Amino acid sequence: MPDKYAAVWVSHTSMSDFLKCPRSYFLKNVYKDPKTGHKIQLMTPPLALGSAVHEVVESLSTIPTKDRFKESLLAKYEQVWKKVAGKKGGFHSKDEEEQYKEQGRDMLRRIIKNPGPLQRLSVKIRQDLPHYWLSEEDEIILCGKIDWLEYLPEEDAVHIIDFKTSKSEEDDSSLQLPIYHLLVHNTQKRKVAGASYWYLRLHDDLSPKDLPDLEAAHQEVFAIAKKIRTVRKLEKYDCPNGSDGCFACRPMEKILRREAEYVGENEYRQDVYILPEKNDEISMESDIL
Q1: CA proximity to 39, closest of 58, 59, 20, 13
Q2: Which one of 186, 198, 201, 254 has the largest count of C-beta atoms within 10 Å of its C-beta?
Q3: What is the mean pLDDT of residues 176-200?
Q4: What angle do CA 242, 90, 166 make, to 5 degrees?
Q5: Residues 6 or more apart from 40 whose CB is under 8 A from it?
Q6: Pick from 22, 21, 13, 16: which is nearest to 237 by CA?
Q7: What is the residue-averaged pLDDT of the chain?
Q8: Angle 214-234/12-20 helices, nearest 10 degrees?
Q9: Could you give the CA distance from residue 257 to residue 198 in angstroms, rounded to a whole number?
Q10: How far is CA 18 from the centre of its chain?
């Protein structure tokens, strides 16, 4: 078996970065600051909000069903929010931060009133980061975290659930469901019986989605992963817009030009930066969780 540490690891996020702009993919997934040896992240309010809400909700999956709602979700949220408070979350004022924080409270209140699948049995994949060999020959590993796997005892099957904190619904062309179907199928033994999004801003219950065909999903994901592998091998990460850059790479380039403010190191040992002014481009592209 090939060395997994020498393999190219791909995920829904990294492939989405690549499809938007190879230069953006490089800056977010490959580049390391020569001084610190760390990767870089540009933090924005939508990203901070999504991260905080996801952490609170996903933490429930490790708690036995009967005990899940013994501790207030809003109390948990207050503790988690400390990680993204102030500049750490890309907020430019107390008022802006409070507006975003209240949006998160609203989403959690929706869950408290309508817990749905969160009050039923769940499955937790044992790997910290679920992954498998997409191709040993090409040395490519597919990885990604699944928000929630509901256990369906009548079928001894699982139901994939992805929480959405964005203001808009996921595009039908998104690679997310094909990737999640592949990951769940290949990292645990129970069959996948269904998949849904839960738009926490918009709806009290789930939005069921058709399960992508596994073979078609594999072919689509593998084709993109091979392109990423080739680009990495050639070290040719060109923006389609040329030297002018695009909406995806221009904000990241500001970090390299020292036009962004360093605010600390996150739990993944990334150097976190924020832009000194509001940036509509980065706000738009970051509202994806």
Answers
A1: 13
A2: 198
A3: 96
A4: 80
A5: 27, 28, 31, 32, 33, 252, 255, 270, 271, 272, 273
A6: 22
A7: 93
A8: 60
A9: 39
A10: 15
